[in-house]
Amino acid sequence: MEALALHADLESVQAAEPQSDVARAAKGDVRAFEQLYRAHLPKVHGLVRRMAGGRDVDELTQDIFVRVWQKLGTFRGDSSFTTWLHRLAVNVVIERFRTETTRRQRLHDGEEIFETLSGPVRSPDLPMDFDAALEKLPDGAREIFVLHDVEGYKHHEIGSLLGISAGTSKAQLHRARMILRRHLS
After folding, report:
1. Which letter does DSSP use for residue 29 in this model?
2. What global pTM score does this model have?
3. Quick count: other Cβ atoms within 10 Å of Cβ 123?
4. Per-residue pLDDT at 52
5. Which of 53, 104, 157, 183 could lock onto 153 through a cystine, CB 3.0 to 4.6 A?
């Protein structure tokens, strides 16, 4: 449901931006790029916050827009600018967390991870804090949960993006859901 809302929000931003802003920014027009930045910053920041679990969100968001400025000349217009930007943002976040030692650790934690997580102490009338729950997930489980359940990627696509098998993606998604269920209940 949230992925559909995010997609609808992105389409409304896209409809509001003239194609000329993208073309002018690609030719080096700083003002046109600033307009694109202001229009897309909230959505990119939200995506980064969910994928990175709250760590280095501002720095990653900045890195994404630096990369957009560097790569804007390669935008061919085959897809919407918003789709291109989303894919670039996902790739930047994945690149940031793709060191071999981090990858090995986050994808091979044993079942003991469930024992290290304590359930929240909260009153039944308080709303669930989904973002806080996402931040509690291990890196790999969070990335896969966000890509699959929030952004709508398929397991084979996630496997290609992260360099893992579809089966590992499914296992990590299950793990993420179990941890979230425990945290949010």
Report:
1. -
2. 0.59
3. 5
4. 83
5. 157
* Separation CA 115–CA 143 (nearest Å): 21
CA 50 to chain centre: 5
Residue carrying the six token digits 């981090």: 102
Look up residue 163 and give its DSSP letter: T
pLDDT digits (tens, 9 = 90+) for 106-147: 555 555 655 555 555 555 544 567 778 888 888 888 889 989
Residue 37 has pLDDT above 70, yes or no: yes
Q: State the Cα–Cα distance between residues 164 and 156, nearest whole angstrom.
A: 9
**Number of helical H runs and strand E runs in the chain:** 11, 0
The pLDDT value given to residue 69? 93
Q: What is the distance between the terminal CA atoms of the chain, rounded to a whole angstrom?
A: 20
The residue segments making up the domain with residue 154 are 100-184
| CB-CB contact of 106 with 140 (8 Å) | yes
Q: Which residue, of 70, 96, 122, is where some domain finishes?
A: 96
